[in-house]
Amino acid sequence: MNRKPKILILGAGYGGMMTASRLQKGNFHQDAEITLVNKHDYHYQTTWLHEPAAGTLHHDRTRMKITDIIDTHKVNFIKDSVVSIDKENKKVKLDKEELDYDYLVIGLGSQPETFGIPGVYDHAFSIRSVNSVRLIREHIEYMFASYNKQDEKDDSLLTFVVAGAGFTGIEFVGELSERIPELCEEYDIARENVSMYSIEAAPTALPGFDEELVEYAMNLLESRGVNFKINTPIKEVQDGKVLLDDGEVIDSQTIVWTTGVRGNSIVEEAGFEAMRGRVKVDANLRAPGHEDVFIIGDCALIINEEINRPYPPTAQIAIQQSYTCANNIKALVKGTEEELEEFQPDIKGTVASLGGKEAIGVVGDRKLYGTSASTVKKLIDNRYLYLLGGMPLVLKKGKLNLF
Amino acid sequence: MNRKPKILILGAGYGGMMTASRLQKGNFHQDAEITLVNKHDYHYQTTWLHEPAAGTLHHDRTRMKITDIIDTHKVNFIKDSVVSIDKENKKVKLDKEELDYDYLVIGLGSQPETFGIPGVYDHAFSIRSVNSVRLIREHIEYMFASYNKQDEKDDSLLTFVVAGAGFTGIEFVGELSERIPELCEEYDIARENVSMYSIEAAPTALPGFDEELVEYAMNLLESRGVNFKINTPIKEVQDGKVLLDDGEVIDSQTIVWTTGVRGNSIVEEAGFEAMRGRVKVDANLRAPGHEDVFIIGDCALIINEEINRPYPPTAQIAIQQSYTCANNIKALVKGTEEELEEFQPDIKGTVASLGGKEAIGVVGDRKLYGTSASTVKKLIDNRYLYLLGGMPLVLKKGKLNLF
């Protein structure tokens, strides 16, 4: 009796989840034993997390039970944390057990990039999981609830610092600026007592975005009370304060760190050659020298040949990779290696939401502002749900208030 | 020209608010200048505060704008804090100004009684104002939100200690026990990870209440997971822990102090003879030796001659006092001192809510349990609104889900 080859997928983010979803189609479980491992029993939309972090969307809207999407007759699901990967012996150590594999898909996602700035891990929040954004939401409310209980009012309770004016930082501060007036109402606090800062080391907010759109976003957010400090590196984060390179100190009890991500340290620890936790994969999305290991999503490094720089890790690329990855695994299992596909990203555009009905974006050659950009953003969010779980999932979790 | 006598009411709790409301009736402002001073621009229902503290009722349901109730053409309203009372010179110092009076009504309410137990002010919450209960609600949520973010789970985050199993303590732990399952659902926490303690120094919960009803309440609350520690004095409160006299230490990040109240220290500092901040007033509700100073509500001490012990300070007594107080002020201003009334409490009953549709109570000679007690409790709450603002206020803020 032939043993069925074991396919092990680590991580149920965009890449891992979509790979599992692609593999379960066409009854591939008859040819291989497919296992998906994830820390939580739910999958969540990482790109939506700025909304529950600010409290403008409930976190349950951003997540779904994995076994509601994956057919467990076709794909085994194990809820456990990955501890380490032993690529020589083809084993993966989890918290509670050890698994072996014939083909491995690493989709373990990213970790916050601190650039070695002291105090970030100890004193700043990050937008990276349901647990972490729920804490940010409640922390912000707790600051508002505490303010009026103090005899000597401490304005650092109502000072909110977002470190990094990249994509996530701008999207979060956009939501926050929409949420602040509601919080002021709820906690009997005058709007002028609240401060918001968006701090960016680079010479511009949203580096790489169209200049005109960046200006639109900054004007809009400034009109909602956001103070921008661009070209201003952060020197250190301490308990209750942010120290800037230019000598300024901002007293704040709420510092949200969004200066970008790196790959997962488990990938580095496994001995793959990596840059900041990201492995430069081959054209088939495999780790160099390891034909049985696919790496996708935020742990995969792919060079944009046109500008000779890596593509930024996005949900869009992770989803596209999952198609190539699933097809290539099928080819390897079936022994039709001539059918291995090369991955080619197809960047359709980028839209950043700014809270409320505002957004900016580039789709193809078109620049979008305001409501039309916001609508496109929601369509993108819904499209992913459609790819993952069809129309029922769109109806259940989608953003149906399009305008 | 005759100067109109000045009537100054300090505090817009049950007593002060109802006195102002009584005085504005019958156009008494033509005879006297009436001023009401309060720290906030709203009046709130102190006896409902255990609900917003647990998060089972929004705090806006427990409060109303003072100028929505008081007609400012008849009664001046000043939003300010009372600093001190100079009874010899008939002046009251506020934060921002000084006022003089001909007749003073002190309705400044209570302060938590700590019995000198160390650490209470620094490490425990109390249920005494909109600001304080909003903080408790958010603190509880923050504990739940923090739990899953920790690598080493700290169960003290999910341990809730209510110090004092008197009226407020039992009502609060009742609401909390109703709220916990919702919080477990919201924050992905198993119910068995949460602990609740009700700790009481006296030999029984709800001292003074009918024994059979106390047993009913304790059985019900135990079935919802409350651990009772009766006859167990608290020795000290420290950051994150409660030390009991019997040597046990309970690790808890949330300690709510409800062991009773004392009168207001401003009354003591003004030189009135007081026991724990409460002044034993004369039959007309005046401070002994001060015919121009009325003291009502939690700062007034009235002896129940039948048992030779003070009546416990309640909303019921404060409201009854306001009628006597307002009538007596009118008599003094009109120079009809023979019409001065003597205050006689008329205790109609006591009902304690236990969360959900549960309550216990004694009304007249009847013991009440369960839904019928809960309905009576709501009728009592609505009756006060009716006395204060008539049917429109009942419809706006009342508890209309009677069964």
UniProtKB/TrEMBL annotation, chains A, B:
GO MF entry, a single one: NAD(P)H dehydrogenase (quinone) activity
Any GO BP: aerobic electron transport chain
Cofactor(s) the protein needs: FAD
Segments forming domain FAD/NAD(P)-binding: 6-321
Keywords (A to Z) from UniProt: FAD, Flavoprotein, Oxidoreductase
Alphabetized Gene3D superfamilies for the sequence: 3.50.50.100
Annotated Pfam families: Pyr_redox_2
Coiled coil: none
Record-linked InterPro entries: FAD/NAD-bd_sf, FAD/NAD-binding_dom, NADH-Q_oxidoreductase
Superkingdom: Bacteria
Family that this chain belongs to: Belongs to the NADH dehydrogenase family.
PANTHER family: 64 KDA MITOCHONDRIAL NADH DEHYDROGENASE (EUROFUNG) (PTHR42913:SF3), APOPTOSIS-INDUCING FACTOR 1 (PTHR42913)
Annotated protein name in UniProt: NADH dehydrogenase
UniProt organism field: Salisediminibacterium halotolerans
